[in-house]
Amino acid sequence: MTIAKNIEISSTSESSFEDAIQQGIERISKTVNNVEGAWIKEQKVGVTDGKISKYNVIMIVSFVINDGTDIS
Hints:
Elements (H helix, E strand, L loop, with lengths): L3 E10 L3 H15 L3 E14 L2 E14 L8
Antiparallel strand pairs: 1-3, 2-3
């Protein structure tokens, strides 16, 4: 049986939504094992002097919970 858990994270980039997503996935993968996928819940931009200054995504990240057994 496989059980997965979802967590919500926010990530920001100064260059693009794609970069914000990539940075978020890379960062969460350093602390959470078995990341399986992500759903982009929200995208928004920050504006400074009439220009986009940052791209922010809020995403739901799914990962499989390890049951602690070693199948070697």
